[in-house]
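Exercise 7. Given the components listed, write out the predicted structure of the assembled complex. Treat all entries as one system.
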Amino acid sequence: MPDVLISEHIGGAALDELRSQFDVVIEPDLWRDPVALQDRVADCRALIVRNQTRVTREVLVAAGRLLVVARAGAGLDNIDIPAATEAGVVVAYAPEQNAISVAELSMGILLGLARRIPSADRSTRAGGWERQVFTGVELYGKTLGVVGFGRIGFLIAMRARAFGMRVLAYDPYVSPDSVTVVESGAELVTLDELLARSDAVSCHLPSTPETRGFFDARRFAMMKSTAFFLNLARGEVVDEDALADALRRGRIAGAGLDVRAVEPPAPSDLNELENVILTPHVAAFTDEAQERVIAAVCRDVANVLGGRRAAYFVNFAAPRTTRA
Ligand code: MLT
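Answer.
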């Protein structure tokens, strides 16, 4: 029976190191089959997942020997944390290890929208040389609105400042004297003010029952018709039909989505719109970020299985279970 079960694609040097200490089984497609997952997890002491495996109450009940669930990333919406906590299972994760990569792709997509890079590329490859068509706008002097001012929001704010942008931030859990606000020079404002004043709105909200469909028709209607909208956080926080409608009617100027309500998404109107950039949830997928993420979770799995405390945990640092 394995010590560690991995139900998605994960690799790298830190994993090799974990394998030298423990019996590790990798089943990269196991996340697709919840019944098989419940079966395989029954004997293992650690489960490592990305965002596709649903670690439900049923999975946790089936996992009678489990000590730790390690999430190779920051988002925790695929893990039933109350159920893990009730079971005494440590939930470890990588809360900041990929934040730089997400901030960098956000700036990349924003530049792509402002300068229409994907469309210009497609046109040129097709033999075009449409210099008058692909006029863009500068970021310099524009206002970026960051909704959800955590680690990633802060890193984007710092990068936007380097481009000469003003930064507005909305986050009910952040105070004006917090170091991220002071250091970035962001102006904390109400959501309505942010939507009305921003030339680009970047969403950094987690997916919770309260944030589902947060960006809806009413909120898109409050934005400038020249504004861009970015979502590299979680797909569920955006009403995609409302977004497609706002883009089609010219209520906003463009959108960049790295995440979708359902992943992989079904074909949608968004695919047909020229002023949309779509990427397949890859903001965290750089060599450097993945090395840090995998190292953090493998280290914490080894910590917990070795009777030591996890460094990055959501509920507790050591198991509170009498499981074998
Ligand atoms: C994260 O939550 O860290 C990123 O969205 C990447 C991922 O889901 O694995």
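Discussion: The longest strand covers residues 143-147. The mean pLDDT is 97.
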